[in-house]
UniProtKB/TrEMBL annotation:
CDD domains: PHOX_C (cd02979). Keywords: FAD, Flavoprotein, Membrane, Oxidoreductase, Transmembrane, Transmembrane helix. This is FAD-binding domain-containing protein. It comes from Talaromyces rugulosus. Gene3D superfamilies: 3.40.30.20, D-Amino Acid Oxidase, subunit A, domain 2 (3.30.9.10), FAD/NAD(P)-binding domain (3.50.50.60). The lineage of its organism: Eukaryota, Fungi, Dikarya, Ascomycota, Pezizomycotina.
Amino acid sequence: MTRKESAVDVLIIGAGPAGLVAALWMSKCGINTRLVEQRPYHLRVGGADGIHPRSMEMFESFGIDEEITQVWEPITGWALWCRNAEGALARSARMENPTPVRCRWGPGLLQQGIIERIVKQHILEQSCVQIDYETTPISLVIKEDSLGDPDSHPCVLTLRHDDGAGVSDELVRAKYVIGADGARSWTRKQLGFEMQGTRTRSVWGVTDLVVVSDFPDIRLCSTINSYGEGGLFFLRRERGLIRFYVQLNRADEELPATSITQELIIETLQKLLRPYTLSVKRCEWWSTYTVAHYLSDGMTKYDRIFLVGDAVHNHSPLVGLGMNISMQDSYNLGWKLAGVLKTELNSTILSTYESERRPVAEELIETDRFHLQLFDAVTATGSEPAWMLEREEAMQPSMQGFAVNYLDPLLTAAVGINRRPGALIELGKRFPQLNVANHATGKVYSIQTLLKSEGKFHVVVFAGDLSIPHELNRFNTFGTALKQIENQIMVKFNVIAVHRASKTATELASMAEIFFPVDETTGRDYDRVYCDMETNYEEAGIGEYGAVVLVRPDQYVGWSGELEDVQDLTRYLQPIFETKKQVPYNN
Ligand SMILES: Cc1cc2nc3c(=O)[nH]c(=O)nc-3n(C[C@H](O)[C@H](O)[C@H](O)COP(=O)(O)OP(=O)(O)OC[C@H]3O[C@@H](n4cnc5c(N)ncnc54)[C@H](O)[C@@H]3O)c2cc1C
Ligand SMILES: *[C@@H]1O[C@H](CO)[C@@H](O)[C@H](O)[C@H]1NC(C)=O
Ligand SMILES: CC(=O)N[C@H]1CO[C@H](CO)[C@@H](O)[C@@H]1O
């Protein structure tokens, strides 16, 4: 057997949602990457299907939102049904599902396999990422003596390609490895990490069906709690499908996994829906699971090998957060790794992956546990739906993906602009949606759509009223200082300025070069200066004299300050960016 040998910057193991989003970052940043997956390539059926608003924002930043919204089913509302102690089933509430405040997206549903296909196509648009199916790592050795050298390839793996026709092994040396290989993660085992947590007795059936039913809310998302029996919920999906989650036992009953069949799931479903009827026309997929909550006791080894997604956290699919949170793990890690590999960012920032994501994983497991307890409580007591409404209310931000608040001091400055309670822009949180109009064209944008995932930090300058000479002066002084910072760190920012003068009261030509630069290939850049749409400053918590907000490549606010706080900004940036010798730099 001949053995190939190769070297790569990043090796990703597992092409589920987490591995694919990591690979998408690498493709956007031009990083030489291999993605290996044990399965042969075919469209996955079943699995996750919930897409959260924050995940849509991430897709939008990667430019793949439209492909998803063409085929997804938005969640437009939710119906609650209850069977009381007398056995009568009735609708207790029908709620609209409002689009979250300051977000362009509501939640939606699309089969995991289709999302994976869309992401994969985008990855393959760039040639720097190679995807190998039917390929499994069989050994992993870390060369500890070369960990200190940033250019070394300390992770040595043997990959086995087995396409049924033949087996071949390959030796790959990688600078970094991302283990995105799911709940039974091989990578996690190699690193010696343990899953810690508990397994419950709660057993659920999950199935994707095409049905005929006279249940009135069958084309809505509905929850049915049946006193003393159990619960059921279902979600409308693409292609006429419905995803059903059916509770198969009560919390106090034991149900052996081997006794579960597709028929049992469907019978239970029919029983919970009575007196309404349901017949199955087609079953696309079914599965069962016993609810468990586990968290890996480690997420990284030497900041060279990282675990993302289900390899780190296992929980029930009930709250529909697994895919959202798994992709967000990679969204957090990807730009850091790419920045370090491009020698733009100091490798110490890699430690923030675990410090930022572990609390999110812990919260995910708590949310899930809480949710299950409520489900069991409602079944046991037949209690008021007010319970559920309140719970829905309280969990909204975290269910939508907006509760994440990163706190690692290396990436999140301790103090920022005068923080008004309830202000939209908050340190450590994702930059909100705010509408602005392009100064040159008048076209309206949400600032967030301008924060593309390309690996750049974004500097959003709220410039005040530029028709006042003093303010224009402050603005330009800041712009000149920012240009100097760029030259020092040899990295370009995505610069966005939002002023509050009228479009005719100030001219682009009076602005510092960084706000209105010339590009050799695309000409003048008119995409940096915008006019405030009147209310944004106040809502955002920004005073009339403006502010500067530094946004990380993954859209979380890292630093904010006044236009005069250049020194403080430099102090924030210094440990993050690789400090370079001062090379004269012309551009
Ligand atoms: C029934 C069900 C319903 C769910 N519903 C939802 C939902 O509604 N919403 C939601 O957000 N989440 C849901 N989830 C959870 C969701 O599927 C996972 O959280 C998500 O897929 C995790 O992504 P991942 O990339 O971390 O792992 P996975 O999707 O498990 O991907 C891991 C990949 O690695 C591959 N792999 C494994 N080992 C190796 C190896 N040694 N070498 C090479 N490749 C390997 C696997 O083949 C797989 O493709 C559900 C899960 C289930 C089971
Ligand atoms: C990276 O940061 C560490 C710790 O702050 C520092 O000691 C080191 O010099 C930095 N490396 C570079 C190349 O800037
Ligand atoms: C950032 C993101 O989209 N993730 C969300 C997924 O769900 C968890 C669990 O509640 C939230 O905490 C995250 O905000």
